[in-house]
Amino acid sequence: MNQPDQPFSPVPMRQLPNVSRRTLIVGGGLAAAGIVLSYQLREMLKGRGSVFVAKNQRYDGPLEQTIRDGFVACGLDPLQIKGKRILLKPNLVEPSRDCPHMTTHPAMVLAAAEVFRSWGGIVNVGEGPGHVRDTEMALVESGVADALDSLKLPFSDLNYEEVVWTPNRGKASKLEGFFFPRSVAEADLVVSLPKLKTHHWVGVTLAMKNLYGTIPGIKYGWPKNVLHHNGIPETVFDINASLPKTIALVDGIDCMEGDGPIMGTKKQMGLVVIGTNPTAVDATICRIMDVNPAQVPYLRLAADRLGPLSSQRIDQRGEDWKGLVSPFQVLDKPHLRALVRHRGLLVT
Known about the structure:
Number of strands: 12
Structural class: alpha/beta
Largest sheet: 10 strands, mixed
């Protein structure tokens, strides 16, 4: 991939008081090409992945140090971040002040931004909420708007931004390619920052499913209907196969179980899970949730193609996941029974 041909200067959200937040959102494009970090490439060729799990985490705790330690432990070289365009992609699906465990906590976004900035990265935050057309409202309701302002972080509205056509490299669905927002297509590194949740259609929504939010609603509808009609597991896989390099930072402090990703109940776990291979990260989290990762349809597609599912091929960093297992409630639905067949169904 090509290197940037000109410097990028992020525009702080409060730098232009006479310009609306929406103008800044829609105009927040990046101009660069992606990189493949050498360590990640070696790991993919070996068919292995590394996942870091930290317990006893709090939103008011030392999240920056946890994130820094986690990525370094998984082999990410801070020297390779300097000068690169980093897109942080939180989950702001349908935020509500009454349900903060539905969306990525602002403290996670701020901590991640500080880490990548300290390594010399050019940080941008982007999201295309799947259930609401008013992204400014999503920012305000989730608390992310104030967080962005506090660090003068630029934001790209991925639902409305100018798009770039990218061929479908996964080929699991019939889609020939994807319209990715320019901030996504030209990022050097996309950091998936999901909330750890169950999902009423595919069982779990973690690092890989979170990247549905890189697809623009202006092209695909709400809630990304074109993707749904072409198969959720297939399009999750295809999107992940077609994106620039992605890594994962999962907010597992306050989680959601039951009727996720919107109507579920809060489950406190106190975890931060980090990895340079989203497939390996999601497989590890499934085990912590007491869910069989091989029964999650999009993970089954990704196995040995985008990353490993087998615990024998995932190098554990930080805490051992086996001591953290806490079964998550899932809906009593036929299409979800295989995920938890070994322990029975939990909620109706």
